[in-house]
Amino acid sequence: MQVLEFLVSGAVQGVGFRPLVYRIAHQMGLGGAVWNEPGGVRIRIVGPARNVEQFGPRLRAECAAPARIDQLRILSVSEVQHTEPFRIAESMSDGARQALVMPDLATCPACLRELLDSKNRRYRYPFINCTHCGPRYSIITGIPYDRPQTTMRGFKMCEKCQAEYDNPDDRRFHAQPNACPDCGPQLELLDATGKRLGGGDWALRQAIAHLRDGRIVAMKGIGGFHLMCDAKNEDAVKELRRRKRREEKPLAIMTPNLAYARLLAKIGDDEAEMLQTSAAPIILLPRRADAQIAESVAPHNPYIGLMLPYSPLHHLLLHGFQGSLVATSGNISDEPICIGEQEAIQRLAGIADIFLVHNRPIVRALDDSVVRMTAGKMIMLRRARGYAPLALPLPLETSPVLALGPHLKNTVALAMRDRVVVSQHIGDLDTLESRRAFEQAVDDLQMLYGEKPDTWVIDKHPDYASSLFAHRQGRNPIQTQHHHAHIVSVIAEHDLREPVLGVAWDGTGLGDDGTIWGGEFLRATPEGYIRLGHLKQFRLPSGDGAMRKPIHSAFGALYACFPEQMPALAMRLLDISGETAKTLQTLIEKAVNAPLTSSAGRWFDAVAALSGICRESAYEGIAAQRLEHAMNGANGSSLYPFDIVVEAGCVVFDLKPMLEALLADRNAGVLADQLSLRFHNTMINIIVRLADAHRGLPIVLGGGCFQNKFLLDSTIQRLREAGHAVYWPQLLPPNDGGLALGQAVIAARTLKSPRQT
Ligand code: ZN
Ligand code: ZN
Ligand code: FE
Fold it and tell me: Could you list which residues have their CB under 5 Å from ion ligand 1?
């Protein structure tokens, strides 16, 4: 008899993988055992040599989503006299923790059928799940993934559930969150003060009635609380915005099913498929003109964010409501999403009228993920529930590295051996709450993967909360340049081995020369970079605060191009008072609180203000977004001129000719859609021009500006037409949410080739 031992890594825990192994071994008449290890799943197969050899290929062939085999490594081959009946053994908890922690999985079709089947013992039970679906990352307290290491540890399975859990032929075999109405978590309805009003199905039906009456319900879901209200009810949606202090950002909508979603948005085949995946993200979709939703769901926006129900509780709620609901994160403006009942009652006081909660604890906050299709591929705009944590292969072996990420749209990453794990979206680190969530994520990754890296890596900007944290902890972190990290993130995602031409366009990042970069062209590898070029710089009056004031960007750009006509020109074009103009001009001329910037994001802001599209913006990026939407389907290839000059070996794209032409257009009464189109085309042309000058280098696009669908789609198309290979972020967002990956890879490289002294 031959004995073969395998170690399988990939998505193999919590996805019904061991039952699959058991079934195949059983059918092939093989003995042995299978068990979970921190490093993956270990399999021992005993039987005649010929059969034993066929086991691996068959396992690969029959492994289906959500399970995924990344590697099937043979550890040993030996001989024994006797075989043994195949069994599923207890988990081992030592060894290298390479097993992937699974993301939360949307309710599977089999569970959904049972949920709505009045003869099933889990009929209308809001916590039904199986090995193919249910909570994972949101309930895991340690690896390996076993019930005692989840927040289900407090629920003792009843006899029926235990029998399912123990039966290898059952869909719930070793389904760690397995539960039923007799033994599992229960619903409760609380009033705004936290007083219990009732439980069970009554609570659910009451919540639906409240939604019908136009009230705002806070519902505890998978990765935190949702704030929900009737998506058709203008008053309810307006009130939710007012209470949540959310002025303009679109609110996500959950529809009962795909058919309902099609009434609200134009949905392609790829998008329909994406909506129904087990990740169940929010997808940004072109909204239908006849969509029956309140105007204030997504004001001034041709897109809406849609998702389908992804937990049994959502299914029951939407099924009962028979219509679409606004389902937005349970938080105030940019704070992290609430996960606990007490916390929600306190923080959402004054926002929610009623709370639908349950007693299965959530370990970590996971917002809904947001994606969009671009150039036929999905791109991630916010990566959290359903996708996090993300493990990517590293092109090199590394000692452990902890990357602390940026200040805005923070994520953190942990690199170890040949892998890097990126956390869920944490958010902007401006509030105490979000800095707490950040610190929890830092601890969390280290705890889950059992690594305490000595090497930390940060952005070189000294004022980022993530950088300050590293220094406060007495670390001596490796420092990375913001735009280099943007580009390396994409290099790592696509495993590019050659130098690339990186186009890093975003809002702001600290450059090597102390100025604010953001419209950069870098020849880059993970080891380093050369700044090949950038957009024309201007002084931005009142620095960082200016991201909410597009007219400041416009003032700075005008001053840089037409100093002799200032401030009169700005007063006329931007409709600002002489006093304001004088203040801004003094800041620029004295170079006080007016940093030099080459930021593409600020050029978008400037043009948005000069086109009369946006003067004030409630959050960063809104001016650029309105500028993009102002095109309103306009097409054509007309564009503005620009100059190319060389300063200190660096190509500078001088946008003065562009501004002159744009202002002439404006004088001639050209409408905003054409101004916007011509500006976008100009920016795309700049990228193509530089790419043509460096033919042979693959082009990598990164940075928050590429959230702009027109800019990204058209740049990809134009570069391809010109014969360039082009790469862009897909698994991680183009914005700062992807930065931690780049930081981790740069640090891993630095450790490999020690810094020169
Ligand atoms: Zn299921
Ligand atoms: Zn039970
Ligand atoms: Fe950035």
Answer: 108, 111, 130, 132-133
